[in-house]
Amino acid sequence: MLRSLVGSEMCIRDSFRTAPQNSFCVQTPQCNVYSLVFALGGCEVMTKGDTSKLHACGTRPALVNHTTLHTDFRKTDDAKIIFDLTRNALLKNNFDTAIFLSNAYGPSLVAQDTCRIKWFQKVLNPINILDHTTPNIVDEVYPDFYALAPVIRADLYRKAMFASGGVSLEREWVDIKEEGLEDEYAQGICTLLQDNLKFISSCYINLNTPQAVKDVLIGPNVVFCCGPSPRDVRNVVVMSHRHSKTTTADGVSVASAAVCVFSLFGNLQGESKLNEMAKLATQKIGAEVLYVTNTHGTSTDDLRKAVFDECPNYGTNLYMINSNFRSVSGKIDPSKIHLPFAML
What percent of the residues of the chain are helix, what percent strand, and what percent coil, each to the nearest 5? Predict the structure, then answer.
């Protein structure tokens, strides 16, 4: 499910269509590997060093997204070529920091990774998932279902109790795009980030203008805000809503997933905020599965208490490197990182 929805062609098309104007694509001459670079003009990447004081590790950062290598070229030098091409393109456009995710400590990377990012999932509508005629959806969400059917079936109902039981959201949330209030809420979100991230985060993108908030966070995503007014936002959750369609002999099977891009809660902690996000995904979006990383103030322990299951095959390393392939930060606790992860 994570592979088919988060990394789907639809996701890539959305990213190309909604990327900031100064973003660009890098690809090899054979077009078998490419990178989409989100240029974050006017934004700084703030990190805390050994002195616990925030400093800008990159005044011209870029998110390197969707780095993809065709399977026929895995044992060639194309992977290193795309890194070199991306590096040259970043230098040409005066970017000093590249932020990206990679499953390996290479190719030929001298840089130390910043942390290990883990993905977790919560199935919001398990019965519907099991009704899908697409085998890989069930296998990816419940890989041991057929071997442990009696045990997992009981677990399914326990996890999905709130989805069918009508449990209400604890706060009044506004879908700002559905209401057409992006401009009104952009300033409130900007103020919330400026007032909170410098105290609770060890690594974040300093979105210091409403336009930067609209470019990086709002973009193609679904944005929920909670607070007394658009100018006084107390909580914000940014999600990416993804669909996967498969045509079978019985018709078209559609799976729906919500991916948490970014979240910041001023008055909810731990398990409570994860439960609120799950309710948003199922009640406001109608998603069947919610995917969350162990970032944005959320620890692995919080996710397990909220009955989220780790996706062990999708863990990845976060890198923040300069033009010399050197890390611009030391090791950072993933829960202290506030980056928009659907854009990485």
Answer: 35, 30, 35
| Spatial separation of the C-alpha atoms in residues 314 and 187, rounded to whole Å | 34
Which pLDDT band, with edges at 50, 70 and 90, does 52 fall under? low
Q: How far apart are CA 213 and CA 204, in angstroms?
A: 13
Residue 207 makes CB contacts below 8 A (sequence gap 6+) with: 43, 190, 193, 213, 216, 217
- Cα 332 to Cα 105, 133, 209: the distances in Å are 17, 42, 26
Alpha-carbon distance of 62 to 59, in angstroms, equals: 10
Distances (CA, A) of 237 to 82, 151, 223, 231, 338: 33, 33, 6, 16, 12
**Per-position DSSP letters for 182-238, written without gaps between them:** HHHHHHHHHHHHHHHHHHH-SEEEE--SHHHHIIIIITTSEEEEESSBTTB--EEEE
Burial bucket for residue 167 (CB in 10 Å: 0-12, 13-18, 19+): middle
What secondary structure does DSSP assign to 247-288, as a single string?
A: EETTEEEEEEEEEEEEEEESS--HHHHHHHHHHIIIIII--S
Report pLDDT digits (tens) over 98-143.
888 876 544 445 578 888 899 998 888 776 666 665 556 666 666 6
Q: How many CA atoms lie within 13 A of 180 on its CB side?
A: 0
- Name the burial class of residue 8, with classes exposed (0-12), middle (13-18) and buried (19+) by CB atoms within 10 angstroms of its CB: middle
Half-sphere exposure of 191 (CA within 13 A, CB side): 13
DSSP bridge pairs for 238: 223, 262
Q: What is the pTM of this model?
A: 0.80
Q: What is the DSSP string of 139-176?
A: HHH-TTTTTSHHHHHHHHHHHTHHHHHTPPPSS--EET
| Distance from chain centroid for Cα 301 | 19
The answer to whether 233 and 188 are in contact (CB under 8 A) is: yes
Q: What is the pLDDT of residues 193-213, one digit of tens each?
A: 999 998 888 888 888 888 888
The answer to whether 224 and 284 have CB atoms below 8 angstroms apart is yes
Q: State CA 244 to chain mean position distance.
A: 17
Distance between CA atoms of residues 71 and 126, nearest Å: 32
